[in-house]
Amino acid sequence: MTLAYWCVLIALFLPYLSTITAKAVSGGFSPRHNHDPRALLDNLSGLGRRANNAQLNSFEVTPAFAAAVIIAHLAGGAEQALLDQLALAFVLSRIAYFICYVADWAALRSLVWFVGMGLIVSLFIVAA
Fold it and tell me: What residue intervals traverse the membrane (predicted)?
């Protein structure tokens, strides 16, 4: 299995870093919140809300990244090392995105988001 495929697996689990953060700062790991955890997450503020928003964005972008990696592999137009580097850069951009979101660095977060989207587009372009 290629590094790019491993990056897809990592990207699938990255949203849960945000989930854990949101719940940890809000006391969401108590048994009473386990009956309806989404209600808890919907009513957060501050750091917990930002972490939950990062989670939602991660769930939104991950399918596009996974599709880009799979399509780039199937198209076969790029060196594997380049695909691996782009995929790893995407994962690192998502970690940076999470950090920017919870730290409330809005402008930098938006810039990092654009970098991540650019990396997804790059996977398509290099495979063409």
Answer: 86-103, 110-127
Do residues 81 and 62 make contact, with C-beta atoms less than 8 angstroms apart?
Answer: no
Residue type, 39: A
Using alpha carbons only, what angle is made at residue 38 by residues 30 and 57, rounded to the nearest 5 degrees?
A: 120
pLDDT band at residue 34 using 50, 70 and 90 as cut-offs: low
CA 100/CA 120 separation, integer angstroms: 20
CATH class of 3-127: mainly alpha
Q: Where are the domains of the chain?
A: 3-127
pLDDT in tens, 81-123: 999 999 999 999 999 999 999 999 999 999 999 999 999 999 9
Please tell me the pTM assigned to this model: 0.92
